[in-house]
Design a protein that fits this description.
The chain has 357 residues and is α/β, with parallel strands linked by helices. It contains 11 helices and 9 strands. The chain folds into 2 domains: 9-66 and 178-349, Rossmann fold; 70-176, 3-Layer(aba) Sandwich (Rossmann fold), CATH 3.40.50. Helix 8 packs across helix 9.
């Protein structure tokens, strides 16, 4: 006899918890931080906005390597590297990369060497994340090519040279965008789901800044695994939306295969909002600066000019233009990046006020 009993909330919880347990056990992980990271209600900012309840998932407060959600992916990659007896991590991006700084900290913690591959030439100033990488004793390799993609081939060149020297390098793609890293962000979805249950929060949407695409791919996969109703409102900070959507879909498909799931994601599964990159990746914009100041002055939460500031600028613009009228409860993923405040003069934040005013 067929059972037509309705599915209850308890049934959904039990099913999702079983999935969490199953896939958590399938994901290798060398835990570095203390979890969960805080999920905080933005009381004053929500009142200002008047249209939504806004929450912050504070991955900037991950308690390792100056924080940031790059640590989540690196916890999985470190477990994989150690299982292969690697003795050297090789990765790259720009000189102010959060991912490279986090990788240098992970290598130091694990007793591994680390080479940071940077596009372009050595910067004139040793500040921000570059200063931290130098302090962490990372080796540096500059491509002397201003094309950011030059990092990709140079990571492989450095790794090959290390093998020739008898070392066992573990190359990590630019920005940490690889299937193993994606799995760390799947675990972040599981973590937020449990926090929402504990706090009685049922989010309508998740806001995320997107660079190389690994974080978005993990959230896309994790949300599908748990069959959650959350919508993703994602803002590119580095590439054109169509290119990012394709990259995210490919990474999510590869990560699903690691979990033995025969799932294929398409670019249509990973929509991206554009229009808020400004003059380019890593270059502060006036819209981001305004969003950073608004959030900081309302909540004491510091966003960064490269990622979260631009995503917040996009989200606030969407609210103003009534794009998200059906979404009442929003979680903004604060992915970190505060070292960017300590690069250069900071004149991009200047609005005419002095410190004493």
């Amino acid at each position: 006899m067929t059972d037509f009993s309705p599915v209850t909330a308890d049934d959904r919880f039990a099913s999702r918890q079983a999935l969490i347990d199953r896939y958590t056990n399938l994901i290798p992980r060398h835990i570095l931080g203390h979890y969960p990271t805080p999920l905080l209600y933005a009381n004053r900012l929500s009142k200002e906005l008047g249209k939504v309840e806004l929450w912050f998932k504070r991955d900037d407060l991950i308690s390792f390597g100056f924080g940031g959600n790059k640590i989540r992916g690196l916890e999985v990659m470190l477990a994989d590297a150690l299982s292969q007896n690697a003795d050297w991590l090789v990765t790259g991006a720009g000189a102010q990369s959060n991912h490279v700084r986090a990788t240098a900290a992970v290598a130091a913690h694990a007793g591994l060497n680390c080479t940071a591959v940077y596009w372009g030439k050595p910067p004139a100033s040793v500040d921000g994340n570059f200063r931290l990488c130098k302090m962490l004793n990372a080796h540096f390799h500059f491509t002397h090519d201003d094309d950011r993609a030059s990092v990709d081939s140079h990571i492989l060149l450095v790794a090959d040279k290390l093998r020739q020297q008898g070392r066992q390098p573990y190359p990590i793609p630019r920005g940490g965008a690889c299937a193993m890293g994606v799995l760390g962000h799947v675990l972040a979805v599981f973590e937020l789901y449990r926090q929402c249950l504990d706090q009685g929060l049922e989010p309508d949407a998740i806001v995320l800044a997107v660079g190389s695409g690994g974080t978005y791919a993990g959230w896309l996969l994790g949300i599908r695994l748990l069959n959650l109703p959350w919508k993703m409102l994602c803002y590119t900070v580095s590439r054109e939306p169509e290119q990012v959507s394709q990259q995210v879909a490919g990474l999510a498909t590869e990560a699903a295969a690691l979990l033995k799931l025969d799932w294929t994601f398409s670019a249509n599964d990973a929509p991206i909002y554009g229009g808020f990159i400004g003059q380019g990746y890593g270059i502060p914009s006036s819209e981001a600066a305004a969003a950073i100041k608004r959030v900081g002055r309302a909540e004491g939460i510091l966003l960064d000019p490269v990622y979260t500031g631009k995503a917040m600028a996009g989200f606030l613009s969407g609210l103003q233009n009534n794009y998200f009228e059906s979404y009442k409860k929003i979680v903004f993923i604060h992915t970190g990046g505060e070292p960017a405040f300590f690069v250069g003069t900071g004149d991009w934040l200047d609005d005419g006020h002095t410190a004493s005013e």
